[in-house]
Amino acid sequence: MSVIVLLAIIMSVVAMHEFGHFVLAKIFNVYVIRFSIGFGPPILRYKRKETEYVIAPIPLGGYVKLAGEIEEGVRENQEIPTNRLLYSKPAWQRFLIFVAGPLANILFAYLVFVILTLSFGTPRVGIDGVLPLRPAYIAGIRCGDLIETINGNQVFDAYDISDLVNKYSNEEMHIGIIRQKKRLMVNLHPYIQPSSLEVILDKDISPPPTNARIVSVGGVNVFSLKDIYSAITKFRNEEITLTWKKDDISGITKGVVKNAVYSPKRVMIGVMIRIARNKVQRIDKDSIFYRAGVRRGAKILKVNGHRFANWSDFIDLITSLNKQQLVTSGGVVLHVSNGMFLKSVEKISPITKPIEFVFENEDRSIVTVNIDGKSLNSLNSLYFAEGVEYVRYAPMIEIIHAISRTNRFALKMIQAIANLLKGKNLNQFVGPIGLTAVINQGMKSGADTFVSLIALITLNLGIINLLPLPALDGGRIFFVLLEMVSRRRLNPEIENYIHLIGFIFLILLFIFVTYGDILRLGGGG
Questions:
Q1: Burial tier of 206 (Cβ tally within 10 Å: 0-12, 13-18, 19+)
Q2: pTM of the model
Q3: What are phi and psi of 483, to 5 degrees?
Q4: Which residue in 5, 31, 302, 384 could disulfide with 84, CB within 3.0 to 4.6 Å?
């Protein structure tokens, strides 16, 4: 189903993109030979006046074929007047025709976010917990508050908080919050959370004493926390030897590496963001929970007899169970500080009994589900309501918020593309297979999330097409701008060869990202 939805989205986004080129071509009286959605031989075709409208079987793009576009002065049909060929038009008109496609995508994304905001309100970040004795708690922020602004900047999601806290890490922060529809302002200074490492070792072992310093892993000397992490991850599910030293005492600890999590240094204010709500938004019908009687709208009352006050408590409980399911006999969790000193040791035992989940449906019926201790991944069949809250403002304010929010999405996309062009974060490049998984998740997260995802896809397409790369609209825009500056056009044959090379590069890139998608979904990367 998600594949069909993805194809429908791609075709719609492509149609919008090509419609932008089409409209400007018509405005400037360029002869439009064909408007095609998809590539390959036509499945459906319809001709109206001079233009043939086509749907083709390969739905990974589309094109508007303009008379005289391939080679200057060549007519696809001798009946086409010379003044209607693309390259008979002034450079500024060709510039607008080329830029109209990406611009149509980008403007549509802005329109979607404006409509969503006017329909639902402005999304705000809810606080699910406040760490005691940390800046947020001391300043007066409490569980249930909504963060509205940080130093005058609107906050729409958790990423905004992270970005703004990092931006103002060395100065006082003025945070606007909403508490029971009342607006308050608090002031605080963020703090630095040092980097840390968490290592889970299986087997009945004698762990190092606290404050012991790890000096080697598997016989290899280590000089930083990242060294320890890199060395340990090479021994996953294998026995490893940790050599440590405390004062004048040295020792060795052996165990089987089950997991290692490295947390880099972060700037924080001491709050836990509400990422979800205790309400089942959707449930897979082939899951153990559905078969037991859990239905949409249900909430979790208890897990193994434990009640939880908020979603962060639930995540902590599931995280603890996840650690337990990794060990087979008796294990420990080693918490290592930035200085390679052991801060604490947490002993864990394997899960020997079924995990009991107690749900309450909307009709107040109680459902108890017991799952095997090694099957916690069955929780993936439950999709909980998002933790975001929507706040209503005056319509003009909401439009401004929607534009501001879309601006941030666009900026983040530009930054991500810049990193990719530098060779950074290549594993984050998602192809059609990975996008199918994202679409599938979006379909299960509510209408607003799904529509937002469509807007982000079209925004991304518009921005990427503006890149000055051959075979993209941005490449053609670059050559037109060069022509406008130099007052002469590059040799058409050379330009066509450059675009051909760019097209081959895009095909290779498509294969690369598709391969990356397969590795990720297959667990190989």
A1: exposed
A2: 0.80
A3: -65, -40
A4: 31
